Amino acid sequence: MSDNDDRLAPVTPLFGAGWAKPGTRAPDEPEWADPDESASFEARATRGDVEAADGGIADIDGHSSHGPGSQRGRAVAEPDGAVVSALPTYAAFAARSEGAEAGPDVEREPEPETEPEPEETYDAAKARAENISLHALSRRGVSSAEMTKTLRSRDLPDEVVAEEIERLERVGLLNDDELAENLVRSKQDRKGLGKGAITAELRQRGVAQESIEAAIAEIDDDEEQARADDWATKRAGQLRGLDQATAERRLNGYLMRRGYRSEVIRRAVEKALPRGGSRGGGSRGGVRFE
Description:
Layout: H1 3-6, H2 35-46, E1 57-59, E2 74-77, E3 83-86, H3 90-101, H4 122-137, H5 144-152, H6 158-170, H7 176-189, H8 195-204, H9 209-217, H10 221-236, H11 244-257, H12 262-272
Antiparallel strand pairs: 1-2, 2-3
C-alpha cells in the first residue's frame, strides 16, 4: 500500500457476499480490519433472530424486529448466508404513529346530543309573516305575487301565507291596480318606454293580467307617438356620417328596444330621418341623406 493509499478514508461495505465466511476479509476491505469482528457481526445478524431460509428480517444489533413498531435498522439474511442491511419500512412508522395517537383501549367520549328546536306555533308564524311583509313594503311597492313568493321563501306554512296576503289586500297595502298605474307613469316619464316594454316589466313583477291591461289602456296614443318622436330625434343626432339605410335600420332597432309599436316607430323614423332632405338645420348641423 502506497503513502497515498494510507491517507484515504477506509470504506466499509454495506452489502456483499464477501462476509459470508467467518474470519475472511472482503476484497476491498482494508488490511487493518479485524476478521473476527466481522465474523462476530455476521454471527449476530444471522443467528436465531434472522430467518435465513426465506429472507427473514432481524435488527443489525442482533435483536429481533418482530412487530410493526420496530424502527431500528434491520438486516436481511439471504438464503446463501449473505447479510444485507435494510431500512425500517413505512408500515412500521405508520403503525408506531397510530399506536402513539390512540391506543386500542382508549374509548372516545360520545358526542352530546343536540336537542331539537321547538316547533313554531301558529301565532308565532303569523307574527313573523307580518314582520316580513312590512319590511318588504317599506322598501318599494310589491305585487301580491311578489309578496307571496317572499313569504314562502321564509318557510312559512301555506295557510299563514294566504292569510297574510288576504290581510294586506284588505287594508290596501297590496294593490296590483295601483301598482300598475304607478309603474306605467314611472316607465313612461323616467325611461321613455313604449307600451310593449311597460307590459313586459309589469308581467315580470307578477302584476295580475287584468291590472296590466287596465293600466296600459290608459296610455294615450298621441302622447306615446310624441314621446317616440322625441327619442328618435335625439338618437338621429348620433347617426351622422351614416348612409340613409344604415341610419334608418339603427334607429328602428333603438325604438323597438324601447318597446314602441311598429307603426309608432315608422312615423318617428320618417320624421327624424326625412328622405331627400336635411336635418339639424344647415350644413354644420346635420347630414344630407340622398
